[in-house]
Amino acid sequence: MEMISFNIVAYVTMILWLAGCLFIVFGKKGNILTISGNIMVFAGALLLIAYLVILWINLERPPLRILGETRLWYAVLLPVVGIAIYLRHGYKWFLYYSLFMASVFLVINITKPENFDKTLMPALQSPWFVPHVIVYMISYALLGASSYVAARGLYFQYYRQPKPESLKISDNIIFTGFAFLTLGLVFGALWAKEAWGHYWTWDPKETWAMLTWLSYLIYIHFRYRHPQKTTSALWIIALAFVVLLICWLGINYLSVAENSVHTYSGQ
Amino acid sequence: MTTINKKRQFWQYPWSYREGFLIAIALVIAGFAIGYVIDKEVKAITFPENLVTGGVIILLLLITHLFFRKHEFVKWIASVPAAISAISAYAFLVLLMGFIRQNPEESSEFLNRTGLSHLTSSQAFLFAQMYFLVTLGMVTLKRIIPFKTKNIGFMLNHLGLWITIAAASLGAGDIQRVSMEINDREPVFVGTDQQGNMLDDMGLAIQLIDFKMESYPPKAFIVDRESGDILNLKNVFSLEMGARGNILGWEVEVVDFIEFGVGVGDKFHKVYDVGAAPAAYVTAKKDDKKLEGWISCGSFRFPGNFLDLGGNELLVMDRPAPKSFVSEVKIYTEDEEVFETEIAVNSPVTVNGWKIYQYDYNHDMGDWSDISVIELIKDPWLPVVYTGIFMLMAGAFYMFWTGNRKKTE
Fold first, then answer.
1. Could you tell me if A267 lies within 8 Å of chain B, comparing CB atoms?
2. Using the beta-carbon criterion (under 8 Å), do B84 and A186 form an inter-chain contact?
3. pLDDT value at residue A58
4. B271 and B306 share a domain?
5. Any chain B CB within 8 A of the CB of A207?
6. Which domains does chain A have, with CATH numbers?
7. pLDDT digits (tens, 9 = 90+) for B87-117
8. Does any domain span residue B1?
9. Range of the domain at B343
10. What is the count of structural domains for chain B?
11. What are the chain B neighbours of A201 within 8 Å (beta carbons)?
């Protein structure tokens, strides 16, 4: 797969999203502008999904091995979450956020092309590979979305009128995201037993994954006990997302993780 | 006692976060201090001590719940503030693990004595885990005795986690890992455990019939003549018959490709012999320069070849990356069973309670290797851990189903 075609797909997708968002901004509920905007946003996401499918076929392996590929998945799944929540609840700002974040990831992949290499080491050739990573990417997309809700909530908390209902949205997203996070962790453990002989070895990635899981666990318990304390809850989401980012992207830069089985550099 | 809400003294019931975090901090500090003073790591207990310990813990938690659940302390230990302090203590130690290299051999004396360089076998970790299991255990008992069906999701998540962590910790001492180098000459029944002890009581003997390895097409790299650095890491070119592409401005084309070849002079010939290596006849064009020749990665037996592109650049072939490696083996068991099977990465074989894994091979000889390293692993607590893990999975599906609707309870 040549990176050229990726760039074209990414640019077309982002133009569709941008145009679609502008249409939605100026459109009124149910009129032709909004509907065309919705269609463009959809078309952009579908184009990206189609590219991912073709990439998968061309590579002859699941495109889930290197960081650039997981960013691509994120750029596909985040708009799916965004569009679903937009259609379900009508939150336009949520759609803009998810499309913006997905575009950021597309731009990173354009500016930092990593080779789409066909080799897949034997340890990764497992039926667990696809469910493990996709479940994680769905979870990351949901939890990333919740972090935006939290940032927005904190902004309103400190500079405008507090909006307690923003936590209701993030609660729903985090519950679902946490369930996926649990499944990702557990699938990883079951896979590790088959591949490396033990289900948990405190590999640096596992350590940070456990930390991410514990952070959201704290959030869920805190919300359960103190539904009224919204500011603290919003801060917990923000911190938990920092941990998630270190686990996903920062781990490659940590010196402790040199020998991790999970450091997916381009080679 | 009238000012309970606002000016409650420390350690005056009902307890809350302050007490929880103080207990957590005290446990962690005490753990590190004890570790430093006694200078010993926590040894995993083995059967039957671990089973007895597990039984005693469960019994104590049950007695506490059944007879003292009205006590303020017991009420508190099963509360969210206690839970959050316990999760935080545990998370704090995991955070340290995320930043401090867990390798006692390369760490300072201070890190080794406190246990910071081997946190999972430190006293602090043991104490934090105990605190975690006590709070989690007490809240679980509170919700499942007496049992109500509406608490099923709660039970799956909490009891599942308790079983997973308790069984993984208590069972750790019973895990046996034995590596064994097998060959195609005779059955091997002796292996080495992780401490370097020779073991021969596995009740198995294994002989290698054939070690089979498949590889991906080798990659072409342009390397710097002086430093040996690869210059085109981000621009991979796979050497296959007819492949064309651009590497650092060079138009490269593979005119001929031999999977098993041996070089004679400047030319490579198709030869299927021990140590034969892939070779490719390539042309490389840049501006008005055109070069061609054989490149090969060579092997333990035959030398390779590269194409000199002039300047400081050399076009070389990388050793092919393994696609799969499989040991075809014959296994003899104690009860005189003999059978043949295949052991591959990601597909271990189970025999008499041992899971047998493909572990390593002779990297120099690859497909031509007459040995293979396998690993035999026994983990008698695995079914218990998996029970917990499957409860957690079921609990996660339950969360999809109900979302956070139950929060209003």
1. yes
2. no
3. 85
4. yes
5. yes
6. 1-116 (1.20.120), 120-267 (no CATH)
7. 999 999 999 999 999 988 888 999 999 999 9
8. no
9. 176-214+323-378
10. 3
11. none
pLDDT of residue B290: 93
Residues B310 and B350 in one domain: no
CA atoms of A42 and A80, how far apart (whole Å): 9
At a CB cut-off of 8 Å and minimum separation 6, what does B201 contact? Answer: none
Which residue of chain B has the CA closest to A219? B84
The answer on B330 and B182 residing in a single domain is: yes
DSSP-derived secondary structure for B153-183: HHHHHHHHHHHHHHHHHHHGGG-EEEEEEEE
> Is position B11 within any domain?
no
CB contact under 8 A, A256 and B100: yes
What mean pLDDT is reported for chain A?
A: 87
Is B12 inside any structural domain?
Answer: no
All residues of chain A having their beta carbon less than 8 Å from the beta carbon of residue B84 are 218, 221-222, 225
User: Is the minimum CB–CB distance between A217 and chain B shorter than 8 Å?
Assistant: yes
Alpha carbon distance A15, B62 (integer Å): 62
Task: Classify residue B43 by burial, with Cβ atoms within 10 Å: 0-12, 13-18, 19+.
Answer: exposed
Task: Tell me what ipTM this predicted complex has.
Answer: 0.89
The reply to whether residue A183 touches residue B396, judged by beta carbons under 8 angstroms, is yes
Beta strands B219-224; B237-238: pairing state: antiparallel
Residues in chain A predicted with pLDDT less than 70, given as ranges, are: 1-4, 114-116, 258-259, 261, 263-267
A197 contacts in chain B (CB < 8 Å): 177, 348, 355, 357, 375, 377
In order of A48, A124, B239, B355, the CA distances from A196 in angstroms are 34, 11, 31, 11
Q: What is the per-residue pLDDT for A166?
A: 72
Residues 87-146 of B with CB under 8 A from A: 87-88, 90-91, 94-95, 97-102, 120
Q: Determine the distance in angstroms separating the CA of B63 from the nearest CA of chain A, rounded to an integer.
A: 26
The answer to whether B278 contacts chain A (CB < 8 Å) is no
pTM score of the predicted model: 0.86
Cα dihedral B280, B281, B283, B284 in deg (nearest 10): 40
Question: Where is average pLDDT lowest: A103-107, A109-113, B131-135, B386-390?
Answer: A109-113
Domain membership of residue B8 (yes or no) is no
Closest CA to B362 of B393, B327, B392, B313: B327
Q: Do B91 and A172 touch (CB under 8 A)?
A: no
